[in-house]
Amino acid sequence: MAVLPLRIYGDPVLRAKAKPLLEVTDATKPFVLDMFDTMLAEDGVGLAAPQVGASQRLLVLAVPVKRHKRIDMTLINPEVVRAEGWEVGEEGCLSVPGIYDEVKRASSITVKALDETGKPVEFDAEGYLARAIQHELDHLNGVLFVDRLDPKRRKRLLAQYDEKLRL
Ligand code: ZN
Fold this sequence. Notes:
The chain is of the alpha+beta class. It has a single domain, classed as Peptide deformylase (Peptide Deformylase), CATH 3.90.45.10. It is built from three helices and seven strands; from the N terminus they run H-E-E-E-E-E-E-E-H-H. The protein has helices at about 30-40, 125-140, 150-165, and strands spanning about 45-50, 60-65, 70-85, 85-90, 100-105, 110-115, 120-125. The chain has a five-stranded antiparallel β-sheet with strand order 1-2-3-6-7, with helices on both faces. The protein has a two-stranded antiparallel sheet with strand order 4-5. The radius of gyration is 15 Å and the shape is globular. The N and C termini lie far apart (about 35 Å). The model has no long low-confidence stretch (mean pLDDT about 95). Zinc ion binds near residues 93, 94, 95, 135 and 139.
């Protein structure tokens, strides 16, 4: 298995709308394992396929829920079919290193997806898990968490990146 190179803010793949997986094949499993290796090597709690350059609707999560307990999950073609309430919490992103800020998200969601074997799943998520799913799902639509910040604040936070991109 392998740790894949991460795509960083400014890379066009992070702005593309990712394509649905038409089927889960034998090639899906090793890719999912590489995604987990990459996420865990970078101390991430979630990773979406575009972040490693694959414009596909696939994401992985390793979300700590309690001390010593972690929910590991692979979601393929995920959709939020219910969103209720809201809460504000801090987020960061492996593709926008060094930047953390508070983002408003739905506090309770219902998700429909396929798992890594291609089996349909539907479940409810709340709190930090709901936040992580919404953050990663945004990646599949070319949206980064910084897009959800107040424009002035975003501009200030991203000044270092925008400067590099202009060079
Ligand atoms: Zn992210």
